[in-house]
Every structure is written in C-alpha cells, then in structure tokens.
Specification:
With 373 residues, the chain is an alpha/beta fold. The chain has two domains: 2-163 and 351-366, Rossmann fold (3-Layer(aba) Sandwich); 173-349, 3-Layer(aba) Sandwich (Rossmann fold). 38% of the residues lie in helices and 17% in strands. The protein contains 14 helices and 13 strands. Helix 12 crosses helix 13. It is globular and about 65 Å long.
Length: 373
C-alpha cells in the first residue's frame, strides 16, 4: 500500500519518528511544509521519503495550502492520502478535492474536542469534506464524539496522532545526573517541571502560585516559549520566586529526554477556555515514558491520557495543585510507584509502534481489496 502522509506537525523532528514505524507497515512518503511561520523547521529525517513543499499561508493553522500538491499526487499516485489536519482546514479541502478528481481515497485527522458552531466558510468546508473523504481518525474519544455529532457518518477510528519512542524517552540515571549539573542543583533536590507553549490556557501562572506553597520544591523548570513568558517571569519575581523558577526557553524536540531526566515530577495545569480544551498533552506521555510522575488538571482529554498513572486536580486551583505535588516531594517511593505506572501505560498505549500498527490497520480497513493486484 502506497500512502502519502501530509502533515505540518512533521516540522518537529521527533514527530517524524512515527513515520519510521509506519514504514514497517506501508510504503509511505511524507509532505512537510518547507517553512512554518517564524518557527524553525527542525532538521533530521525518519528514514523515509520526505518532500519539503512550499505552503501558502504557512504558520496559519487551518488556512495554509500547498500550491504544488496536485503535481505530487500525479507523480506518486498513492493508494491512500492521509491528511493530518482537521476536517475544516483549507488544506484538507484542497487535498480532498484533488483526491476526488483522481479517484484516490483519503482520510483526515481531528483533535477538536469542543462541540461548537464553525464560522463561515469553515462549516460548509467541513460538510463537503465529510461527504467526500473515505474515513477519519480522531485523536481521542471526545474528538470522535464531536465529529459524529457534527454529522460525520463515514468510517472513524480513535488513534492518537503521535506516540513516543520508549527507547529515547526512558529512565536514565546518567542523563539525570548530567541534567542536574547543567541546572546547578544537587541530586537530592526536588525539581518540578512544565513543558509546553507559554500561553494563558496552559496555566503556568497557576503553577507559579502553587510553587509559593511548596518550600520543598527547589526548582520549577519551565520548558517552552510563548507570549506569556514576560508576564510569568514578572509574576515569579513579584512572589519572590525568581531564584526558584528557571525558564529554559524553546527546546529542540530531540533534546527533550535530556531535560525531562532532570525532573522529579511534571505538572500540566491546563485550563479550559471558550475556544480550547486540552486536546492531548504530549508532554505527559513523554514524561511518563521517562518514569517521571505527572500531576495535571482535569481539563479536556488529560484524564484519558493519564488514567490511574498520575494525579489529577481541578483546573485553576493552585492550592489543590500544591497539595498533589507535596506528597511526591516528601516520598521518593511514591514518585517511583507513579513513575513505573506511567511508563507501563505508555508502553501499552502510546508508543510509535502501537499507534503506527493501529493506523495501518485502519488504512487496510478502508481499502479492503489488496492493492497492487
């Protein structure tokens, strides 16, 4: 089976590791934007053919398109096109139309987990896509429910978009020691971490407020960049916490295991807004794979990702967040138990191999007649 996999997410190098796992199941070629907004496109490949294509409106979610994609389809003539975008995105419409004209089956991927009316023209765009694709993949059960309620009646699978490499993301004593030296903290210091974009909905302000209640936490390590960083730095200074909060900035995806190794626990205090609710929380499965216990709010899909392998607290509640972290800081045995449980959950559900196998099985279900005959 020849599959063309079109995805802006693959500008992140670590995400391309999924392609290597998929290549063991199908013959796959990927299309990735040559540029994506102001963010650097990370170098590196996954041992499969990757076409870097120009994208109009690159950096604009749901609005970008590929002016040369018709030529790619005519050259490769894939058996299936995997459009790794929401059904209301312009690029999904572009590719679905191109595939229809050529008789090529295609599918989309959806994270959207809030049922809301789409403004024009996105509602009409999604309705056309619903009627003209072969199937769809939802990243979570809630996303699947939103699709069905919106009228999608074709075959639908529930499979996360991306997994983790459990070899790269694994407990590593040597990496932990090196990370601690880099941060200038002793091995017995309790380090709490956060990873993600610094925007209001990620709740890092709540985490800083919780830190004020946690004298045993020597360092809060913030991994990521975003428009909220100046405000968060000012909040830490105002609370007298500046020396206990380290903003590491944007981290190359391939270096994340080195930074996660420094942590004793990871917090993800996401909060729901009118337009967004946590759709997965990839940093959770990366930390869990490294044996790092997680404490997170109960926003969006987090409870389905964490299950019984972490501690959940009400969103926006700094006191509850602090109360959940404190026992972990006081009890290494508790940290070890949650860390072991988290890694087991990742190995069962969230590896690249598991996700690739489930994805390839759905491809075959959509194309029950063996291709190439």
């Amino acid at each position: 089976m020849r599959v063309l996999y079109v995805s802006k997410a693959l500008v992140v190098a670590a995400y391309r590791e999924k392609l290597r796992a998929l290549a063991r199941e199908v013959d796959i070629t990927a299309v990735v934007p040559r540029r994506w907004g102001t963010e650097p496109v990370e170098e590196g490949d996954a041992g499969v053919a990757i076409l870097r294509c120009d994208a109009w409106l690159h950096g604009r979610n749901h609005l970008h398109v590929y002016p040369g994609i018709a030529g790619v389809l005519d050259c490769l003539r894939p058996d299936l096109v995997h459009i790794d975008e929401e059904p209301y995105s312009a690029v999904t419409l572009q590719l679905a139309r191109a595939c229809r004209r050529r008789g090529i089956p295609c599918l989309f991927f959806a994270w959207q987990n809030l049922a809301r009316r789409l403004p024009p023209p996105f509602g009409a765009l999604r309705a056309w896509v619903f009627e003209n694709v072969t199937g769809g993949i939802a990243g979570t059960p809630r996303a699947a429910e939103v699709l069905r309620r919106a009228g999608f009646a074709r075959p639908l699978a529930v499979i996360p978009q991306l997994g983790v490499d459990p070899v790269r993301f694994a407990p590593d004593a040597a990496a932990r020691a090196a990370a601690r030296r880099r941060l200038g903290v002793p091995d017995d210091a309790f380090v709490l971490g956060f990873g993600g974009r610094l925007v209001p909905e990620k709740g890092v302000d709540v985490l800083i407020d919780a830190l004020a209640r946690l004298p045993a936490v020597r360092l809060l390590l913030v991994l990521g960049a975003g428009p909220e960083r100046p405000r968060l730095e000012a909040r830490a200074r105002a609370a007298g916490l500046a020396e206990r909060v380290h903003f590491a900035g944007r981290i190359d995806s391939r270096r994340m295991p080195d930074w996660l190794a420094a942590l004793d626990a990871l917090a993800l205090p996401s909060r729901t807004t009118r337009r967004w609710s946590e759709q997965f929380g990839r940093i959770l499965v990366e930390a869990m794979a490294c044996g790092v216990p997680v404490v997170a709010s109960d926003a969006g899909e987090i409870r389905h990702v964490v299950g019984d392998a972490g501690v959940l607290v009400p969103e926006g509640d700094a006191a509850a967040l602090a109360a959940a972290v404190a026992p972990l800081a006081a009890d290494p045995g508790r940290r070890e138990a949650f860390g072991r449980r988290g890694r087991e959950r990742v190995l069962q559900r969230f590896t690249h191999e598991r996700i690739a196998a489930d994805t390839a099985a759905f491809y075959r279900a959509l194309l029950p007649v063996e291709v190439g005959r």
